[in-house]
Design brief:
The chain starts with about 25 loop residues before the first strand and ends in a 17-residue tail after the last helix. The model has no long low-confidence stretch (mean pLDDT about 95). The chain is about 15% helix and about 35% strand. A hairpin with a 2-residue loop joins strand 4 and strand 5. The protein has one domain (about 30-170): Roll (Thiol Ester Dehydrase, Chain A), CATH 3.10.129. It is an alpha+beta fold. The strands form two sheets. A seven-stranded antiparallel β-sheet has the order 1-2-3-7-8-9-6, with helices on one face. The chain has a two-stranded antiparallel ribbon with strand order 4-5. The structure holds octanoyl-coenzyme A. The site of octanoyl-coenzyme A has 18 residues, from helix 1, strand 6 and strand 9. It comes from Actinophytocola algeriensis.
Length: about 180
């Protein structure tokens, strides 16, 4: 089967430098929201993705695959793997650009099965910006930062105003203060 991906990014883009307030390499990034299914630390059934700032404007995430994440016996569920990439790519966009953004489109190539007990090492990077559209992509490697690639993902994020989260969700407007620069 041919796996030739379409042109990426699909439009002409600019390549922005990371925001001056973007975290430095090695900085551990806590959850952006304690109840986020992807990264929250108060969601018993969540993915508990752990992220940190990598080298060369990358965001590195680790997803430990447990019994709770199975789709087939002993294998991770594809939708949860896609969720891990959504979170890692959202973190890449938010942490490096310091702007609130939501996923508009997410494409995932599943190249190898991901067994329970393994750790997926996801490295996300920005591929370009066109107006409010931000293109980002990530590779997910099995069990080591240089392990075999199990998944690849490309995503379009759209920069939004903070009112997206107060009008469509239940974010507290008091939590959207002038110092806040990434998703609540
Ligand atoms: C640190 C934080 C980590 C967070 C990680 C988790 C991130 C998430 O999972 S967010 C939750 C999932 N996503 C959502 O709920 C988003 C739901 N969708 C929406 O709210 C809206 O459709 C939204 C905001 C994406 C776009 O709406 P709107 O603001 O009206 O802009 P709109 O004009 O439609 O689109 C903006 C541009 O993006 C393009 N675009 C939007 N969606 C797509 C798409 N699916 N495919 C291609 N292009 C798209 C539009 O064509 C437009 O392009 P152009 O500027 O060239 O005309």
């Amino acid at each position: 089967m041919s796996r030739v991906p379409p042109k990426w990014p699909p439009v002409e883009v600019e390549h922005p430098a990371p925001h001056p307030d973007a975290p430095e390499q090695g900085t551990k990034l806590g959850p952006h929201y304690a109840h986020c299914f992807g990264c929250g630390d108060e969601t018993e059934g969540g993915l508990h993705l752990q992220t940190e700032c990598g080298h060369d404007a990358t965001i590195i995430a680790q997803f430990h695959v447990t019994d709770a994440h199975q789709g087939a016996p002993g294998l991770a569920h594809g939708g949860l793997l896609a969720c891990a990439f959504d979170e890692a790519l959202g973190s890449t966009v938010g942490q490096l650009l310091r702007k609130p953004a939501v996923t508009g489109k997410l494409e995932t190539d599943f190249l190898r099965p991901v067994p329970v007990g393994s750790t997926l090492h996801i490295a996300g990077k920005l591929d370009g910006v066109a107006g409010r559209k931000v293109y980002a992509s990530a590779d997910g490697r099995l069990d080591a930062p240089d392990g075999p690639i199990a998944l690849r993902a490309r995503a379009l994020f759209v920069i939004v105003d903070f009112s997206h989260f107060t009008e469509h969700g239940t974010a507290d407007p008091r939590d959207v203060h002038p110092d806040r620069d990434i998703n609540p």
